[in-house]
Design a protein that fits this description.
The chain is α/β, with parallel strands linked by helices. It has helices at residues 15-27, 45-58, 75-82, 94-108, 148-154, 160-170, 173-184, 193-203, 205-216, 240-250, 287-296, 298-306, 320-323, 326-346, and strands at residues 5-10, 33-38, 62-65, 112-116, 135-138, 261-265, 268-272. Helix 8 crosses helix 9.
């Protein structure tokens, strides 16, 4: 029996997820999209400005999700206490799990969900894919909108007869002629999974999408509960330049922390900005971004410093108090300026 499917799009506060919200609103207004924002309580003010502006553009409320609803502390501080002051790092990203992923899955509960994630077409990475069977992730900005998990299922060698049969049923004869040999070739050490996907997408992306969607109708994936899915006809590939243009075209303010600010070092001028959304003390920040925070949001930088104690620091082998010492601060700016010049020479 078909069940109701919820369409959810998470807004991180960054450019890509906001652009995806704009893109889906403009191109697929028939999809009853729900928007949410996982609030850590440690976001930049610019993030909240973007959330508020997006709500006006979308004409819908962006639901604020917070972990630890009943805690007197803000979500990050609550979990930091549980982890006894152990700051998150690239080796222990408890912040993402506890403040983003688990609150989302708790918000969804057992509902059937299609989750829309903004991985651009010029990025070589996979986005968040839930392990819960009731949540299926799609990537509208990529040529391949499907998750690796879904394609592993569809392109399994055992499913070759069924896949070929569906191709014959739902696409044109000319496409079947082009794709037939590829479909019937088993995956092996001589014919990789990625080769099969990329070749079928190159032959005809919408045809491949239609076949995958039809295949999933008899599966346990959430897509099985949809009578149709408009993205199967989509062959757009959205890259960084397109993301910027979406903001411009539809009059939504580009996130302010991406705006470059001028700085001066040794009589020369450079420009810095923040490269990502997320908590103001995100450990993935570059050194120059910490300097940006120190000079543009000194109150927040001071808060970030306050978390460093008992040997726990945001940057490996360097505390924030050391990072802003005059000679070190100057060195970071010099290194950044030099790197920026080298990039310009290569362009």
């Amino acid at each position: 029996m078909k069940k109701k499917v919820r369409h959810l799009l998470g807004i991180s506060g960054g450019k890509d997820s906001a652009a995806l919200a704009i893109y889906m609103k403009v191109n697929y207004p028939e999809i009853d999209m729900e928007y949410y924002f996982s609030d850590t309580g440690k976001e930049l003010s610019e993030t909240y400005d973007l959330i508020n502006e997006l709500e006006a553009f979308l004409g819908k409320k962006i639901t604020r999700i917070q972990a630890t609803q009943n805690s007197p502390e803000k979500p990050f501080d609550h979990f930091l206490s549980l982890y006894r002051g152990y700051l998150p790092s690239s080796q222990a990203r408890w912040c993402t799990k506890k403040l983003k992923l688990e609150p989302f899955e708790d918000y969804v509960k057992n509902d059937i969900v299609i989750s829309y994630v903004a991985i651009r077409g010029d990025e070589n990475r996979e986005g968040y894919v839930s392990t819960k069977q009731n949540i299926q992730t799609v990537f509208p900005f990529r040529k391949n909108i499907w998750s690796i998990e879904v394609l592993n299922y569809v392109l399994n060698n055992d499913n070759i007869p069924k896949l070929f049969e569906i191709y014959q049923e739902v696409v044109t004869e000319s496409v079947v002629k082009k794709a037939g040999e590829i479909i019937l070739t088993s995956l092996s050490s001589k014919f990789f999974f990625s080769q099969k996907i990329n070749t079928l997408l190159e032959i005809d992306t919408p045809a491949f999408n239609k076949v995958v969607f039809e295949f999933l109708k008899s599966s346990k994936y959430p897509m099985a509960h949809l009578p149709e899915f408009p993205l199967v006809d989509n062959d757009d590939i959205i890259i960084k330049e397109d993301v910027v243009n979406l903001f411009k075209e539809y009059g939504v303010t580009y996130p302010k922390y991406y705006h470059e600010v001028e700085y001066e070092v040794n009589g020369e001028k450079g420009k810095y900005s923040r490269s990502r959304s997320g908590c103001f003390f995100c450990f993935y920040q570059q050194k120059i971004e910490w300097i940006w925070l120190y000079e543009q949001h000194p109150d927040l930088f001071k808060q970030a410093m306050g978390y460093e104690k008992d040997g726990y620091t945001w940057n490996e082998n360097e505390s924030l108090s050391d990072l802003i010492k005059p000679e070190r601060l100057q060195q970071i700016k010099e290194d950044h300026l030099k790197k920026s010049k080298n990039i310009l020479k290569q362009e």
